[in-house]
Amino acid sequence: MKGTIYPAIWFRNAAKEAFQDYVSIFPDSQIIESNAVVISTKLNGVPFIGINGGPYFTPNPAISFMVICETEEEIDRLWEMFLDDGEVLVPLDNYAWSPYYGWINDKNKVSWQLYLGSLEEVNNQVIVPTLLFCGPQQGKCEEAIAFYKSVFRDFTEQSSISYPDGDRQGQILQAQFVVNGFTFIAADNPDSKPFSFNEALSLVIPCEDQKEIDYYWAAMTKNGEESRCGWCKDPFGVSWQIVPHNIDELLRLNPAANKSLMRMNKINIADLIN
């Protein structure tokens, strides 16, 4: 996919089945392309990929997806769909932050927050990745947002609210920002939780050329962590995939490209072509 950042979800081996379910759940959704390893989709117009990567990583609520609904009926419909073999984290109810809201893990352990609100509040992006800074990253949300602002040239911070009192006073209750045209929500967790970010939920940066790959790789891995095949972690443990925007095409055109990719940390486009 070319253009904006998009989320990737790691599965043991059922990415296609999971996204077939998601496409049936969300309107304006379609499977764009799929193979044995990767499936590319749009859900409510928002780009996603699913990866069949094996049993190494499992999603947790450190990254969830906030679904902005404008009617209670839509929330009820989605809730019932996700409730099948799912796990309720926060029951559907009236809360201070929304007149109708619930948080649920689906049967794939992917975490969804259903929120009654206005799409205008989130730039008409129905599904918004939400970063929850908890565990070892507790209290680092504000610092992380400042880091992303320094890395991404196309960055707009739209709102930020702090906890007014208590143990979390001064930490981020909720912040919203836009990176490369894609809206995010972030917060410091109100409670102590043992989980934190992992590779099961990653964010993909499709790059125009090698110069752009080099730039993002250097920025994210400085005080972060390198991994294989274009994966890395930023200083706050969030996983990113820094890839050519046409990586699927490059891998199709050169039969040896997959083997070359497996030997790389940072992706070198020339080595995928030759």
Low-confidence stretches: none
At CATH's second level, what is the architecture of the largest domain? 2-Layer Sandwich
In total, the number of strands is 16
**Can you give the mean pLDDT?**
95
State the end-to-end CA separation.
22 Å
Tally the helices: what do you get? 7
- Overall, the morphology is globular
The helix/strand series, from N terminus to C terminus, equals EHEEEEHEEEEHEEEEHEEEHHH
Helix content: 10-25%
Question: What profile does the largest beta sheet have?
Answer: 8 strands, mixed
Strand order of the largest sheet: 2-3-4-1-13-16-15-14
The CATH class assignment of the largest domain is: Alpha Beta
Question: What's the number of domains?
Answer: 2
Return the CATH topology of the largest domain.
Answer: Signal recognition particle alu RNA binding heterodimer, srp9/1
Bin the strand percentage: 35-45%
Q: Pairing-aware structural class of the strands and helices?
A: alpha+beta
Question: Quick summary of this structure?
Answer:
This protein is α+β, with helices and mostly antiparallel strands and 274 residues long. Helices cover 23% and strands 37% of the residues. The protein has helices spanning 15-25, 72-83, 141-151, 210-221, 247-253, 257-262, 269-273, and strands at residues 6-11, 30-34, 38-43, 46-52, 63-69, 87-95, 98-105, 111-116, 127-133, 155-162, 172-179, 182-188, 201-207, 225-226, 231-233, 239-244.
